[in-house]
Amino acid sequence: MFIIVIGAGEVGFNVASHLSREFKDIVVIDKDEEKLERVSELLDVRTLSGSGSSMSVLRKAEIHKADILIAATDSDEVNMISCLVAGIQSRIPKKVARIRDPEYATSARLMGPERLGIDLVINTDQEVVDSILRILDTHRAKDVVDLAEGRLRMASFVAEEQNPFPETFAGTQGHTYSKAFDSSGSAQRRKSNHSPWRRQDSTP
Fold first, then answer.
1. H runs (alpha helix) in 46-204
2. DSSP code for 76
3. pTM of the prediction?
4. In terms of CATH architecture, what is 2-122?
5. Could you tell me whether strands 25-30 and 68-71 are parallel, antiparallel, or unpaired per DSSP bridges?
6. Is the dihedral of CA 116, 85, 73, 24 positive or negative?
7. d(CA 17, CA 37)
8. If residue 188 lies in a helix (H) or strand (E), which one and from where to where?
9. Is the pLDDT score of 53 beyond 50?
10. Which residue(s) pair with 96 in the sheet?
11. What are the extents of the domains in the chain?
């Protein structure tokens, strides 16, 4: 899979880092040479200097081959224009934009296929808030992820002597578990020694 990431700041860097570990073919675009140098030194990805909203830069990045474009700069406007220009040049299966301004982020008409054609809007600041609220809403959870448009919630717990499911986790202190809760409140246990949502300090 070929993915173009626009923006080599913290968000773009972390996205590219995660994707490169999954053996994806990644190109990171940014105008800041120092940020690109950091990306080149630490990640197994290609880099390209320039603006992600530039048609010529996107052509150099081989936009016609891209499966996904992720616009993750600090500028909402640059991210939106990048997706628009990319969509004009090529039929990209999926375009993702980091949009922090709620006025933009909640405008389905603006983001829809008849305008910018952005498939997924990520509001990173709001995602952090939502994640915190999900954890607070689930007693003793270390991490919580909503799935299936909120109909299913996956939560991870560290088994302790004082834990919310003593009969289920008896004698398993130190292990991290995930539980899936459906809308009816039922739960199913799955032991995980390497959960993707597990905290690094959760196992002694």
1. 55-60, 76-89, 102-105, 108-111, 124-137, 166-169
2. H
3. 0.63
4. 3-Layer(aba) Sandwich (3.40)
5. unpaired
6. positive
7. 14
8. strand 187-192
9. yes
10. 70, 120
11. 2-122, 126-192
